[in-house]
Prior knowledge:
Blueprint: H1 2-10, H2 18-30, H3 32-56, E1 61-63, E2 70-74, H4 82-92, E3 98-99, E4 110-114, H5 119-137
Antiparallel strand pairs: 1-2, 2-4, 3-4
Helix pairs in contact: 3-5
Amino acid sequence: HQRLEDTMASLPEPPCNPFSITAFETGYRQGGHWLKGMMAYVGGNRDLAMAFLAQQVPELKAIDPQGSYLLWLDCRGLGLDDEALKAFFVHQAGVGLSPGRQFGHQGRGFMRMNLATPRVTLEQALNQIHQAVAAHRNR
């Protein structure tokens, strides 16, 4: 209870509307079970994506996320510049990933994938990426 009060006291005035205060308090008091389940689920998504990409799409190197639900993909193996890379994922693979260059020049040639999604959505996206990369490989 003290942690909740300390957090609320640290927020600017007014911190939020009455409905969000109730949600905030409930999350702090009763959210532990949900959080553990969500962490396990997203961890399963990470494991699925890492294994799938390593086995099926060697052109993409997945970087194991440390404490995040965002998977960075090193896409330099496709031989595409950043504009072509973004277009490739949107138009050929039909998936919306975040271009790494949005996060600075070190992100060039990388894309970022959100793993906090339903597993069926992730599986569909991975299969679409696999098919698009295979077509790119065989052109």
